[in-house]
Specification:
Elements: E1 3-8, H1 18-31, E2 36-44, H2 48-53, E3 62-67, H3 73-91, E4 95-98, E5 113-117, H4 121-124, H5 133-147, E6 150-153, H6 156-165, H7 169-172, E7 174-177, E8 202-206, H8 215-227, E9 236-240, H9 247-256, E10 263-266, H10 271-280, E11 283-286, H11 295-302, E12 307-310, H12 313-318, E13 324-326, H13 332-344, H14 353-357, H15 360-389
Parallel strand pairs: 1-2, 1-4, 2-3, 4-5, 5-6, 6-7, 8-9, 8-11, 9-10, 11-12, 12-13
Helix pairs in contact: 8-13
Length: 390
């Protein structure tokens, strides 16, 4: 059986984010399989440039369609409700895969619809969205979960969170866990143009500017390590990530602590620049209080970084024994600082843990197996309807 998969990745960010990378990775891993003959990847007109440039989508199987609408909540949601089903029904894909939860009416689609669930942030971290916006995020997430034929969670931790907020979901919808994959095999590292680093001495964090990422506490810990002499003043802290609700607070904090020359904030870098940063950092730090999967952690492990991360279930799930974990409770700054000091003294891991566990080949096979659940039911349902007509 051959398949045509439509992946909807139309999303607000005008710069690359983890959700956008997930959609690009999904398209690329499916394109490498014999079973998938065509992929329609749908993005907003404001996304087209970075999908083409930053994500290196080169397969002839992938048809990138950009939708020219206003990049506003009202315009995007209106298009999800009416424009997306119209497009999908005209193309007749075998599966419509929503790369993140969005509002839609199931009755509007001829094809089965599956959705990737990255996290339950609208319920777990309402501060990420602010009020009253979080109310709409909760409504859209709930609607997407209830209307999808199947739900693909990016981790076991995400599935457990899903079941805690929607206890009957496994009896109502087909669910599975499929990790995000990591693949830098065809990416050539290059120094970011915007980085001026002496002796390649820097700590690295890759995270969007959101409350749950605890970037303010990372900066406090970095400041403490500088002032106490545990790291040299020449050792920078580089934070890579899309702007978000905490961006203004982060810049204010950096200015208040007089760290303008020490803390570098980057966004919109391509995969080659990102690979160089992973491979040349002294240490990768990710201090989040909650995550759905955390692709940057997987990427850091794939490229054999020394890693310090908070001791939360998802990091234990995808992390390795080489990671240095720290306790989020009690004295956060002291715990993180001590973990950084300890990790800097350790050797860099020699083997890539994530290279085997999160391979493109394994992830593609899991998606094809998941899709088959709906294709068989869809085909049987249409054959039954045709027989009734006869």
């Amino acid at each position: 059986m051959t398949m045509h998969i439509l992946i909807c990745a139309l999303h607000r960010p005008s710069k690359p984010t983890g959700v956008c990378r997930h959609a690009a990775n999904l398209a690329q891993c499916l394109a490498d399989t014999e079973q998938v003959t065509q992929i329609t990847l749908v993005v907003g007109a404001w996304q087209k440039a970075y999908f083409e440039k930053d994500f290196n989508i080169a397969s002839i199987k992938v048809n990138l369609i950009s939708i020219n609408i206003k990049n506003s909540s009202i315009s995007r949601n209106k298009w999800f409700l009416f424009g997306l089903p119209k497009l999908a029904n005209s193309l007749r894909p075998d599966i419509v895969h929503l790369s993140f939860p969005l509002p839609f009416y199931r009755s509007g689609f001829f094809s089965p619809v599956v959705t990737t669930i990255h996290d339950l942030y609208p319920y777990e971290c309402p501060k990420n969205f602010g009020y009253p916006q979080v109310i709409f995020n909760q409504i859209f997430l709930k609607q997407s979960i209830q209307n999808s034929d199947g739900l693909s969670c990016v981790s076991k931790s995400t599935l457990e969170s899903l079941k805690s907020y929607f206890p009957k979901i496994e009896h109502q919808r087909k669910t599975t866990v499929i990790y995000n994959y990591v693949d830098f095999s065809n990416v050539k590292p290059k120094i970011p143009n915007s980085v001026d680093i002496n002796n390649n001495s820097f700590l690295l964090c890759v995270a969007q500017h959101r409350k749950n990422k605890n970037l303010n506490l990372l900066i406090d810990s970095y400041c403490f390590l500088l002032e106490s002499g545990h790291i040299a003043n020449s050792n920078k802290l580089i934070i890579v990530g899309a702007p978000g609700p905490e961006t203004e607070n982060i810049y204010t904090q950096i200015k208040t602590l007089s760290l303008q020359e020490n803390v570098l904030i980057l966004s919109s870098i391509d995969d080659g620049e990102l690979r160089w940063l992973y491979q040349n950092c002294e240490l990768f730090v990710i201090p989040s209080s909650t995550e759905g999967f955390c692709l940057p952690l997987a990427e850091a492990l794939y490229l054999s970084c020394k890693v310090v991360c908070s001791d939360i279930p998802i990091f234990r799930e995808i992390g390795s024994s080489d990671c240095t974990y720290f306790n989020l409770q009690d004295n956060f700054v002291e715990n993180l600082s001590q973990a950084i000091i300890h990790s800097l003294e350790q050797p860099r891991p020699s083997e890539s843990y994530a290279a085997s566990c999160l391979s493109k080949y394994n992830v593609a096979g899991q998606y094809l197996k998941f899709y088959s659940n709906f294709l068989n039911k869809f085909i049987n349902r249409h054959e039954l309807s045709a027989n009734r007509v006869k």
